[in-house]
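To: structure subgroup
Subject: Chain for Friday's discussion

All,

I'm putting the inputs and outputs inline so they're searchable in the archive.
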Amino acid sequence: MAVFVALLRAVNVGGTGKLPMADLRAMAEALGFDNIATYIQSGNLVFTSDLAAEEVLAGLDDALTAHFGKSPGIMLRALDELEALYARMPFQDAQPSQVLVTFLQEETAPDALEHMVAADGEEAVVLGSEIVVHYPNGQGRSKLKLPALKPGTARNLNTVRKLLELARERG
């Protein structure tokens, strides 16, 4: 059994993409996933499955598309991928709530940070299919412009740590 973390894009944010976590757990159960857990209301799903990652992703995408009428975007990571990401995490001395990891579906282009405008001293690091941004003054007031973040979904470092903990418990 492989352990997976699915991060859904634009779920329960700003009044759009309504999806109670009980419904998300029920979808995962109907797909045959085991050891299912959700974390906070923003579309974080942790589970185990005998299926290959591509099959897991396809099943989730079909179920969520049926629910929303369109695909919300799913970033799927296996436990070992999340472990590797966390081991390479920059900005270790920053407040975890000021570090956001944007998960993307594909590897980030080498020039992804070229057009970054960081008026408030934000720093970003590309780690494969994730971009990690430190917002020294918090994200809420930031004027950061980084087009490479748009197709992804972001979680702060506290959430990433909790998802990793939940995944480890299932591994």
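Points worth raising on Friday:
The CA atoms of residues 104 and 151 lie 7 Å apart.
The first strand starts at residue 2 and ends at 8.

D.
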